[in-house]
Amino acid sequence: MPFSGWEMPIQYGGILDEARAVRSRSGLFDVSHMGRLDIQGPGAAELLNRVLSVDVGGLRMGRAKYNVICNQEGGIIDDCIVYRRGDDRFLLIPNASNTDAVLAWLERWNTSGMGDKASISNVTSEFAMIAHQGPEAVDILNKLAKVDVSAIRPFRAVETVVAGADTLLARTGYTGEDGFEMILSSSQAAGVWKQLIDAGATPCGLGSRDVLRLEAGLLLHGNDMDTSINPYEAGLDRFVEPDREGYVAREALTKAREGGVSRKLVGFKMVERGIPRHGYAIKDGPETIGEVSSGSHSPTLDTSIGLGYVPTGYTAVGSRFQVDIRGRLTGAEVTTLPFYSRRRDG
Fold it and tell me: Are 107 and 207 in the same domain?
């Protein structure tokens, strides 16, 4: 299906089978639609500290950090991962539908009047991005990579060769499983993809990716957050460092943190039969109190789950409300996030 100028695969062999493959073996996702912005120069760190919710000054070489980009009112323009690739070089990965908005926001604050300007290049079309996720991802990649990938720690990235292609290999992902994301030349991506499948990875589409990220309690911009929502409402407090000179959202986010919020994102499971979907009303009897931001049936947990914004009085674990599923009020209960956590050795 078309998505932000790309033709995206929804499924290869079935959404549920693909989700199970990632949880039990490994799955391969073409995520080349994600943006790739190369930011360099003496002003690169200063620019990013102006617009990102985290301080990149202490980010060591080869490390990555999740963050949100907020406007001056504290609304979330996008959520991204930033990689430090050198003293004055960073790679920022925005969502596909927000790449232009993020570029415009960076350019707005990249002014010579506030220090050195950074060089910003949109290199999305030059590189592909492949995600390999699941408990067998390490073993499969070790057959094809020129480094011991098991030695790469979470949110670290190394320059190496995978299946003959120069690759930025990062231990990051969006499924709740262990795994990696690879950034490599667009011209070599199809060959690497084929070798990974030949080595045992299952090709997966965006349908299973959405189910997996929901099970892991990971938010999707445009569904679970947007410019009408601030990070404290979205439960992203630990990714916000607002007390920094020059940070564009400092005033708004400090006010939100100190004043508190009236609504928050919660995870819930259905206690009656029904699947919550994006946009369905959350109700307490006849009163509408919120809206489902994401929802699906979880093949891993064999139950229906969802995310949604509700008043703070309904956010305690065990709180009950109903979801209006096509005119039928269906019982739901607030639960802890994430819904699913992978088992770790030891």
Answer: yes
- Across 295-318, average pLDDT: 98
Q: Which domain holds residue 15?
A: 2-214
Alpha-carbon distance 202 to 225, whole Å?
Answer: 30
**Please, is 148 exposed, middle or buried when counting C-beta atoms within 10 Å of its C-beta (0-12, 13-18, 19+)?**
exposed
Total domain count, the chain? 2
* Stated pTM of the model: 0.95
- Report residue 346's pLDDT band, with 50, 70 and 90 as the boundaries: very low
Whether omega before 242 lies within 30 degrees of 0, making that bond cis, reads: no
How many helices (H) and strands (E) are present in the chain, helices listed first? 7, 19
Residues 131, 44, single domain; the answer is: yes
185-233 pLDDT, tens digit per residue, is: 999 999 999 999 999 999 999 999 999 999 999 999 999 999 999 999 9
Give the pLDDT confidence of 260-303 residue by residue, as tens digits: 999 999 999 999 999 999 999 999 999 999 999 999 999 999 99
User: Is residue 47 included in any domain, yes or no?
Assistant: yes
- DSSP one-letter code for 330: E
Per-residue CA distances from 299 to 17, 123, 124, 164, 341 (Å) = 9, 36, 33, 36, 14
Comparing CA positions, the residue from 312, 314, 308, 244 lying closest to residue 279 is 308
The pLDDT mean for the chain works out to 96
Q: State the Cα–Cα distance between residues 158 and 161, nearest whole angstrom.
A: 10
